[in-house]
Amino acid sequence: MAAVNAAGDNTVVTLIEKNEKVARKVMITGKGRCNVTNNCDLQTFIKNVPKNGNFLYSAFSRFSSADTMEFFENEGVPLKTERGNRVFPVSDKAVDIVDALYRKIKKSGVKLERGTAEKILVKDGRVYGVRLADERIFLCDSVIVATGGKSYPLTGSTGDGYRLAEECGHTVTEIYPSLVPLECHEGFCTTLSGLTLKNITASFYAAGDRKPVYSGQGELLFTHFGISGPLVLSASAHMRDFENKEYYACIDLKPALSEEMLDKRLLRDFSENSNKDFSNSLGKLLPKSLIPVIIKLSGISPDIKINQLTKEQRKLLINVIKGLRLHITSKRPIEEAVVTSGGVSVKEVNPNTMESKIIKGLYFAGEVIDVDAYTGGFNLQIAFSTGFVAGTSTKEKEIIE
């Protein structure tokens, strides 16, 4: 996006690509479907960027989700909006988005060079070129660093941009995984591995705090190490201090039912199975694999007859169903994160142009900057918006100078 918008009649733009194919990370987004953006307004976008969201106000204003949708549809990719205003290609194929970007590069006259940028060349406080690992040198008036973060390194995101920025005098804030699965203490997570819970609510707390760090409703997936899924990934963005804090999750498996309503539901189900064992009475309420776990946590004997259950025991069961607690021990490694939190300090980047405040002619775009958002197409929109601003700003600078 930066290269396309930097291209013009009097401008030679070279895109230095370290991979054999462009946009490899885009290929795996949205589970291969590519959640290309989110069809919402500016304020909603800012709210969905928990880290330095206000820095992006100008970029989102200049190139919005509507602009992104128009861009790809003009390039022959029909789009659709799904639950949560998430936008996908009608084809459900990320390759269509990648191909559209590649076609646009070619039409815009951008030169594609295979190689790894080793060093940004600077003299008297401004860039004048880039040296590649194979010793080739490209002289230029502007450099846009759009290398991504450190998540999914097999796609080429190996943190190169952070090193390049630091060598130019920029501050790079602490790098850690965001939008990443969470490891849990409870062994039953392994037993439940593969089970997806839909339309549940979960609140995530730092131990000792009454107010949750994050609450939401959506989908949760049990894994062999803990939990994942969209709800969990968004929550992970708010868990930043595992060294000094303990975190736990409280899950409501039946958020549509109050405790009173759930008790009535249990009584109705139990009346149909009054002579059965307790362990055989919850099939209509809970997934089969989850039932033994819930019964064990309730402390009620699985062999007790339904007609022998007391009101107090029903209360214990309701407490577990409405408040399943998981103790979170850590995040998964950054290699498994959807995005990287941390990066080039926003204090050192002009939000209106994406140009460095330290080095003239140096620009940044995308995940390499210290901004990250929730799932739902917001992070790709950050890439497109900042790429647009960085690219167009290089042309605007030429006109001014």
Keywords:
Helicase, Ruva Protein, domain 3; elongated; three-stranded antiparallel β-sheet; 13 helices; 401 residues; six-stranded antiparallel beta barrel
Report on the structure:
- It is built from 13 helices and 18 strands.
- Helix 10 packs across helix 12 and helix 11 packs across helix 12.
- It is elongated, with a radius of gyration of 25 Å.
- The strands form 6 sheets. It has a 6-stranded antiparallel barrel with strand order 11-14-13-12-15-16. A 3-stranded antiparallel β-sheet has the order 2-4-3. The chain has a 3-stranded antiparallel β-sheet with strand order 6-7-8, covered by helices on one side.
- Helices cover 30% and strands 22% of the residues.
- By secondary structure, the protein is of the alpha+beta class.
- The protein folds into 2 domains: 233 residues, 3-Layer(bba) Sandwich (FAD/NAD(P)-binding domain); 152 residues, Helicase, Ruva Protein, domain 3.
- The model has no long low-confidence stretch (mean pLDDT 94).
Short recap of the structure:
The protein is of the alpha+beta class. It has helices at 2-6, 24-28, 42-47, 57-62, 65-74, 94-107, 160-167, 188-191, 230-236, 259-271, 291-298, 311-322, 378-400, and strands spanning 14-17, 37-38, 79-82, 86-89, 111-114, 117-123, 126-132, 137-139, 143-145, 176-178, 182-184, 196-206, 214-222, 226-228, 247-252, 324-331, 339-341, 362-364.
